[in-house]
Task: inverse folding
């Protein structure tokens, strides 16, 4: 089965430790995306985001630098295996560069997910973390 890979990134004005914690925290993830998230923040822990549209399992954690998750949406067919999402948190002078390496995306869906990361994660995260709302 053919798959695709994308990479996208954003620099946010927060320390990498804070951003790492927020990604794996149900309440913070819900707040910065504006949609419900339930996350068990440990290897083997299941998660869902965007009110159940996204689901998967956290496979590896290297605090506060890297998270690896299996990842799928309700748009994946039953015969599509989970994609892989590697989330990297690189320290920058002005905050943290969040890098998403999203692989094993079903063929033909990569550009849709690239736009989704921008619209449903990066834009709301930029607003949230720039406004001082985060705890």
Result:
């Amino acid at each position: 089965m053919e798959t695709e890979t994308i990479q996208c990134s954003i620099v946010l004005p927060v320390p990498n430790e804070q951003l790492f914690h927020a990604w794996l925290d149900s309440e913070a993830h819900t707040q910065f995306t504006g949609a419900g998230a339930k996350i068990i923040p440990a290897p083997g822990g299941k998660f869902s985001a965007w009110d159940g549209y996204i689901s998967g399992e956290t496979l590896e954690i290297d605090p506060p630098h890297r998270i690896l998750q299996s990842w799928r949406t309700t748009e994946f067919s039953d015969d599509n295996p989970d994609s892989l999402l590697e989330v990297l948190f690189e320290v920058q002078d002005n905050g943290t560069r969040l890098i998403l390496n999203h692989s094993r995306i079903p063929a033909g869906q990569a550009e849709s997910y690239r736009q989704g990361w921008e619209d449903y994660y990066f834009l709301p995260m930029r607003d949230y973390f720039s406004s001082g709302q985060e705890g």
